Amino acid sequence: MATASAEALEPPAPPAPPDLTAAAFFDVDNTMMMGASIFYFARGLAARKFFTSADLAGFVWQQVKFRLGGRENKEDIKTHRERALSFVAGRTVQELTDISEEIYDELMADKIWSGTRALAQMHLDAGQRVWLVTATPIELAAIISRRLGLTGALGTVAETKDGVYTGRLVGDLLHGRAKAHAVRALASREGLNLKRCTAYSDSQNDVPMLSVVGTAVAVNPDGGLRDVARARGWEIRDFRTGRKAAKIGVPSVLGVGAVAGAVAAGMAYRRR
């Protein structure tokens, strides 16, 4: 009769004790996920006939300008915000949440960078908490976080009343300096020591967030962030392939019309 080996009988290693004052913060687009989550979301909405291709043209053009220029224009962001709010106004949170679950499975699950996912798991294995920090709507960000087994997410919050979107934001887009403010607020609430925390991003726009923690890591960085990282001695991790890796956002916009429509959908939609 066969007997189990001693190795097979050894109990698994116990999990690391909770490290309550250290945590990690990850941007989503091009950091945790290949491409932009908002585009995949819009692509899913387009497939569900939430809008027409004509509604997408303006947003697509703004995305092209951003990807080629490397910086967002504040007025463009304001315009996108207003269009996005007109899109969600009157729709229920449950409807958008259910659709987001489906779209994640259909279009996002296989776009997660395995290298970045491994970095997040490293922090979890060390007993640290891990949050996503993104301009993506909080409902979608929370789904991505849950599917990856992370602690939670900070995202852009749209106001609701009785489970229905009002068409207004709670605060502003979680973007640029707003991410740094959100991370500081979370650290204060959770008792984190920011000097023991780590942040990961691909974008120069996230330098404020990267600067508030003790360890900053540039993941798949754009040209601006790569320069900042080199100047400040930050670690650089690049999981992309090809010489044009820094321009990965451009084909995301120009190469796939449906994807360009994706969350462009949510952004460029106008009620009729």
From TrEMBL:
Keyword Cytoplasm (UniProt): no
Gene3D superfamilies: HAD superfamily/HAD-like, SG protein - dephosphorylation function
InterPro entries linked: HAD-like_SerB, HAD-like_sf, HAD_hydro_SerB1, HAD_sf
CDD domains: HAD_PGPPase
GO molecular function: hydrolase activity; metal ion binding
Residues annotated as transmembrane: 248-269
Top-level taxonomic group: Bacteria
Keywords, comma-separated and alphabetical: Hydrolase, Magnesium, Membrane, Metal-binding, Transmembrane, Transmembrane helix
Pfam families: HAD
Keyword Translocase part of the UniProt annotation: no
Entry-linked NCBIfam families: HAD-SF-IB, HAD-SF-IB-hyp1
Family: Belongs to the HAD-like hydrolase superfamily. SerB family.
UniProt name for this protein: Hydrolase
Originating organism: Amycolatopsis alba DSM 44262
